[in-house]
Amino acid sequence: ESPRILGIDGRKMSKSLQNYISLSETPEEVRRKVMSMFTDPEKVYKNDPGHPERCNVFAFHRAMENERVPEIEHDCRMGKLGCVACKKEMADRMVRFLEKISPYREKYAGKEKLVEEILFEGSRKARAVAQVTLQEARKAMKIDYGR
User: Which of 2, 23, 87, 114 is the most buried (most CB within 10 A)?
Assistant: First the structure.
């Protein structure tokens, strides 16, 4: 399950609203934007118990497959983790992720035709797998109607 990710201001993420983090952001820009992110409005003080389900920073932690999610959730709920520390950890994680994918992004920048071909081929392969899965499901539910 993927969490719903909002923009850094808590509204729907949109390029026109400038409330997103681009894959081409510098580490400094990423950190600045993450530190400005919307968090739990009821967690006013560091030691206040938090509500991670209402916090956009926590949604980003979950979306980035952070192995520390259960610990972050627990510590937030217990008032052991402040929003600033949580944001700093998220910013560091995001910077590491973007640094890891940066060479691939650079490799394909300006090669729209190649990217389209790769996406088309991936789509074709996924469709073939989906067809087999759907046929198996139809057969299992006895609605394959002679296919």
Answer: 87
